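pls design
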C-alpha cells in the first residue's frame, strides 16, 4: 500500500466525488428516517494543504482552490453549499490550508440519528482517521480491508444510506473488484445507494467497465464523469468518474447543472468533457 491520498486531496477528482457525495447526503436528509454512510476506503479524514505532500503536487490548486475562488451563480452556489460550507468550516480564518476527506464531509451532514462507518487499512491513514472522527459518537473508524467491509456491513440496520467505494487503484484488477464487489453487495442490499469511484486514464478500459456494469442486471445506474483536456501530464489521470447506483431521483438533474460548471472552473485549457448517462434505468431484469 503505497498510495497516500494527501498528495491528491482536494484535486479535481476529489471535487467531483465530494460534490456528488454531498448531494446524495443532502437528499438522504430529506426524510426523517435514519441513514448510514459506509466509506470502504476512507483515507485520513483531514488533509493539510500546506503540508509537504500537497505542497509537492499542488493538485488542490486546480481543484478546490479554483472552486472556492470561482464566481458562481446563486443556484450553483446553493447546490454546492453543503460541500463548500464544510470546507470553509475547516478553514475558519479564510485561508485554504485544510481539506476534509470523505468521512469528514459525511460527518458534517449527519444528523443525530445517522451513523458513519469509515474503513481504512493503511496504518498511518487509519490512525489519523481514528483521531479525526473517533470522538464523534455517530462515527466509527475501523482498520479493516475495504472489500471485506463492503460485504460485512451491508445491509446496515437502518436499511437506508450510501456506500462510497473509493479504492486507490494502485493494483491491477481494481475495475474487476469494483464490479464484483458491487454485484455481491447489491445482492445483499439492493436498495442501498452505492457510489463507485474510478480513474479515467485509459478510455478503452473505462468503456469496458461501463459495458460490464450495464450487463449486471442492476437497475438505476448513473455514470458521472469529468475529463479535463490538460490534466494528467504528471499522473496520467485525465479524468475521473463515479457510478451512482440507486441515486436519489434529483441527482441526475443536479449534476446536469453542476458538472459543466465544475468542468469550466477546473479546466486549465479548453473546457473539459462531461459524461452523464444512465447505464441502466428502472428495470434491469
Ligand atoms: C482514494 S483514497 C480515499 C479517499 C477518501 N475516500 C476521500 O474521498 O477523502 C483510498 C484510500 O484507501 C486506502 N486503502 C488502500 N487499500 C485499502 C484496503 N484494502 N482497504 C481499505 N482501505 C484501503 C488507502 O490507504 C487510501 O487512504
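designed seq:
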Amino acid at each position: 500500500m503505497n498510495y497516500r491520498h494527501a498528495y491528491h486531496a482536494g484535486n479535481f477528482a476529489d471535487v467531483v466525488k465530494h460534490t456528488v457525495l454531498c448531494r446524495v447526503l443532502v437528499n438522504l436528509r430529506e426524510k426523517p428516517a435514519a441513514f448510514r454512510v459506509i466509506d470502504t476506503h476512507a483515507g485520513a479524514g483531514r488533509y493539510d494543504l500546506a503540508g509537504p505532500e500537497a505542497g509537492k503536487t499542488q493538485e488542490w490548486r486546480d481543484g478546490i482552490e479554483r472552486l472556492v475562488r470561482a464566481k458562481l451563480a446563486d443556484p450553483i452556489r446553493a447546490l454546492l453549499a453543503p460541500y463548500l460550507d464544510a470546507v470553509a468550516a475547516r478553514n475558519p480564518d479564510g485561508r485554504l490550508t485544510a481539506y476534509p476527506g470523505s468521512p469528514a464531509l459525511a460527518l458534517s451532514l449527519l444528523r443525530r440519528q445517522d451513523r458513519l462507518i469509515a474503513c481504512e487499512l493503511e496504518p498511518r491513514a487509519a490512525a489519523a482517521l481514528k483521531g479525526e472522527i473517533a470522538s464523534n459518537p455517530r462515527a466509527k473508524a475501523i482498520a479493516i480491508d475495504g472489500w471485506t467491509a463492503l460485504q460485512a456491513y451491508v445491509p446496515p440496520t437502518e436499511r437506508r444510506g450510501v456506500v462510497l467505494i473509493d479504492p486507490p487503484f494502485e493494483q491491477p484488477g481494481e475495475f474487476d473488484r469494483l464490479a464484483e464487489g458491487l454485484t455481491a453487495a447489491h445482492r445483499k442490499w439492493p436498495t442501498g445507494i452505492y457510489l463507485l469511484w474510478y480513474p479515467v486514464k485509459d478510455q478503452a478500459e473505462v468503456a469496458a467497465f461501463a459495458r460490464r456494469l450495464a450487463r449486471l442486471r442492476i437497475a438505476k445506474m448513473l455514470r458521472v464523469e469529468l475529463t479535463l483536456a490538460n490534466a494528467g501530464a504528471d499522473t496520467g489521470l485525465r479524468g475521473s468518474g463515479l457510478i451512482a447506483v440507486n441515486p436519489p431521483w434529483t441527482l441526475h438533474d443536479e449534476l446536469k447543472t453542476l458538472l459543466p460548471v465544475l468542468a469550466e472552473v477546473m479546466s486549465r485549457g479548453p473546457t473539459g468533457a462531461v459524461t452523464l448517462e444512465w447505464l441502466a434505468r428502472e428495470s434491469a431484469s
